[in-house]
Amino acid sequence: MKYPTFFDKVQPIQLQDPLSNFLGAFEDGLMEINYLECVKLAGHSCPTVAGAYLMALKGLEALYGDQLPQRGSIHVSMREGEAEGVTGVICNVISFIAGANGASGFKGIGGNFSRDNLVSYNVPMDGEVKLTRLDTDESVTLSYNPSMVPADAMMQPLMGKSLQGLASEGEKKQFGKLWQERVEKILLSQNLWDTMISITKDEK
């Protein structure tokens, strides 16, 4: 399986998953989720998937500090509706990392470890996404703006030619290369993360 090498350079997210510990999947429930796994989930790598990953990374850091985020104990709220724009893509990535699901999620074992009803849409907020700890009811609201990492000027015309079936094989590869170069800059430019990701810690 070949993929851009920068995927492996993206900071992974460390978590503790009590359900996986209980069922013997990961010792002590200790696990990490990386960007490559989120690309597999989404089926592609793009600025939206990258932004969702960074919002999860930075949001969980803000919520838990030096503690390990507790997967399955985090509620994910979205400002927009599930079918609006890229809301579903963003929520799929963040909820995967957080171990949160909607009504179809895991119902738990003996009243423990449930993952259902931990995702909500159309929730009024100032940002795009809200993450809430179930144990303390603390929450953070996040927004993402990657405009300070502009796309290469050649990307749009190459995309147009590719979609119209007019691009050569070389042009198709060049488009994909330029597309991923922008994603790479978003994910590896840690000095820009605080500008791209806005975080507000909400009052209880």
Describe the structure.
With 204 residues, this protein is an alpha+beta fold. It has 2 domains: 13-148 and 189-202, 60s Ribosomal Protein L30, Chain: A (2-Layer Sandwich), CATH 3.30.1330; 150-187, no CATH class. The protein has helices at residues 18-22, 35-42, 47-64, 87-98, 155-163, 169-188, 190-196, and strands at 13-16, 30-33, 74-78, 119-120, 129-133, 139-144, 197-202. Strands 4-3-5-6-7 form a 5-stranded mixed β-sheet. The chain has a two-stranded antiparallel sheet with strand order 1-2. β5 and β6 form a beta hairpin. α3 runs parallel beside α6 and α5 crosses α6. The radius of gyration is 18 Å and the shape is globular. The model has no long low-confidence stretch (mean pLDDT 96).
Keywords:
204 residues; alpha+beta; 60s Ribosomal Protein L30, Chain: A; 2 domains; five-stranded mixed beta sheet; two-stranded antiparallel sheet; 39% helix
What's the layout of helices and strands?
Elements: E1 13-16, H1 18-22, E2 30-33, H2 35-42, H3 47-64, E3 74-78, H4 87-98, E4 119-120, E5 129-133, E6 139-144, H5 155-163, H6 169-188, H7 190-196, E7 197-202
Parallel strand pairs: 3-4
Antiparallel strand pairs: 1-2, 3-5, 5-6, 6-7
CATH fold field value of the largest domain: 60s Ribosomal Protein L30, Chain: A
DSSP helix fraction: 25-40%
Morphology: globular
Mind describing the biggest β-sheet? 5 strands, mixed
Please state the average pLDDT score. 96
Tell how many strands the DSSP assignment holds. Answer: 7
* Proportion of beta-strand residues: 15-25%
How are helices and strands ordered from N to C?
EHEHHEHEEEHHHE
